Amino acid sequence: MKHAFCRVALACCVGPPLAAFAADDDGLGVQLYGVVDAGVAVTHVSGQGSHSGLLNGGLTDSLWGLQGAEDLGGGWRSRFQLESGFDPSSGKLEEDGKLFNYAAWVGLGHEEYGELRLGRQHTIGQQFGNALEIASWKEMGMGATFKASDNFQFSNMVNVMSPSWDGFQAGVGYAFDADDQGQFRTNQNNRALSMGVKYEGGPLLAVATFDQLRLANAPEGIGGRPQAIQLGASYDFEVLKLSLAWSRQKNGYAGLDGGDPDDLGLGLGPAAFVRGGTVDAWLVGASAPVGPGTVMLQWSLARPDWRWDNGMTARNAQLVTLGYTYALSPRTTLYGFAGYASNYTLDNQFDPANSHTTRVGAGISHHF
C-alpha cells in the first residue's frame, strides 16, 4: 500500500540532508534521513459509518533512518541501513517491539559481483514489484490488491542481488524465521523464499517475481504453500507514464500481510483463500504532469475464485484512486486524493458483506 521504493530512493538520492555525518577520509559515511507525512482524511465504509481525522502517511510512510557505506577498495564496499516508522499524529512507533521495523541490515557488495544483505528487509518480490506502483495512497495503493508488493518486511533474511548487466538485474532471498517465531529448529519457524528479475533501460521497466511461504504450522485444510507470481511493466513517455501489472496469489498471502478475518493467526487472509483459493489481480496506473504538479490515476481489480461458508461466491474487489501532488520545494510536497473500493474494506481485501469504501484526503509530505 505504501511505496517502499520511495524510501530506497530517498535514502540514496534525496540530496544533501539537513542532518548528516560528514564522510571521513577513509570513505566511511553515515547519513540521517527521513520523511514526515501527515494529512486529514474522511473515510466512509458502507454499513459501518464514517471516520474523519489525521492520516499518517497519506503519500509515503513517516520514517527516519540511518544508512552508511565504507569503500573497502578494489571495488568492494560495506553498507548498512536502519529504518524506523512512526506515527506523526501521536509520536508512537508504528510497530510495538521493533525500533527498526522497516529495515535493519548489513551488507557487503562489489560493483561487478552484486551485493549480499543480512537482516530485516524487504523481499526481492516486494522491491521489484513495488517499483511498478504509480499511486501509493494510504491503504489504497498497489499493495491493496498485490499483497506481495505491499509494504512488508521479513526478519532473519538473506538477500543476494546481482549487478546490472545491460539493464538486467536478478535477486533471490530467503528468510529463516520471517515473523520472529524464535524456535530453535529451522522447520519450526515460518520461512520465505523470494526471487525476481527486472530490466531497466531508459523509460522502460519490466519485472517478474515469485514468492513462496513455508509455514511451520499450517492451518487445517490449507491448499498448499502460499505463493505469489507478479509480472508487469511501465514506460515513461515523458508526457505520460503508464504502468501495467498482473499477479496470481494462491493459498493465502505470501507476505503474511493480508489480515486475519477468520482468526487463523497468521495474516494469510480469509480461510477460504488459504484452503486452496486463488486471486488474480490486475493493475493499470498512469501519471502525467498537469500544471505545476502531477496527476495520478490508478485502478486495480482482484478476482477471487472461492465461495464463502454461506455458499455465496466471493465477489471481485475493485479499487480506483485519483490524486494530485504539488512540490513546493525538492523536499516538501502537498497532495490530495480520492479513492473508491468496492467489495473491500481497509481491514478485509474481500468483504463477505460486500461493503464499499470511500476515502478523501489531503496532506503535506516533507523529506529531510
From TrEMBL:
Keyword Chloroplast: no
Subcellular location: Cell outer membrane
Domain (Porin): residue spans on this chain: 13-343
Signal sequence residues: 1-22
Membrane topology reported for the UniProt record: Multi-pass membrane protein
Matching InterPro entries: Gram-neg_bact_OMP (IPR050298), Gram_neg_porin_domain (IPR033900), Porin_dom_sf (IPR023614)
CDD domains for the chain: gram_neg_porins
GO CC terms, sorted: cell outer membrane; pore complex
GO biological-process terms attached to the record: monoatomic ion transport
Protein name: Outer membrane porin protein
GO terms for MF: porin activity
Oligomeric form and interacting partners: Homotrimer.
Main localization, broad class: membrane
This protein's record includes keyword Nucleotide-binding: no
Highest taxon in the source lineage: Bacteria
Keywords annotated in UniProt: Cell outer membrane, Ion transport, Membrane, Porin, Signal, Transmembrane, Transmembrane beta strand, Transport
